[in-house]
Amino acid sequence: MRDIARRGPAPPGEGACLDFEIEFYGGIVAHAPAYVDALMLLGEAYTRKGLYAEGLEIDRRLSALCPNDPIVHYNLACSYCLTSRKKEALESLERSIELGYRDLAHLVRDDDFALLRGDRSFQRLLARLGRGICKVVRKHARG
Asked: What is the distance between the terminal CA atoms of the chain, rounded to a whole angstrom?
């Protein structure tokens, strides 16, 4: 599974490329609906184009196809945030962490989670993730 960090709007001038990608990967997915790599790239293109509802639908499909992939659930949480669905975003992010997502540095900088920044549940999730990372580091330091 690819680790796709697909966040943020597209830079100016990238719209035509994104239109091409959406058409290209959309065609592939139409013929191979369970092609995970194509779905991930299609979801990335939708999100970068600002088509958040479409990106969310792709992420939902991916979470059904890859229920144990922490990156898929992380991206689903991002899509829920971008569509103002706070509760679902927190649930998906928590699932991602349960499945092994550990990139706290990326998570705290990810603009997709702007909706959650002041939320106590989000802050508790960040703290829990930080404690978990510290335990892993201590365990490996001891050998």
From this structure: 29
Residue at 8 is within a domain: no
| Alpha carbon distances (Å) from 99 to 65, 71, 95 | 15, 9, 6
Q: Does the pLDDT of residue 1 top 50, yes or no?
A: no
DSSP 76-131: HHHHHHHTT-HHHHHHHHHHHHHTT---HHHHHH-GGGGGGTT-HHHHHHHHHHHH
d(CA 43, CA 112): 14
Q: What is the residue range of 75's domain?
A: 15-142
Query: 34 phi and psi, to 5 degrees?
Result: -105, 15
CATH at 107: 1.25.40.10
Distance CA 65, CA 40 (A): 11
How much is the pTM? 0.86
**CB 128, CB 94: distance < 8 Å:** no
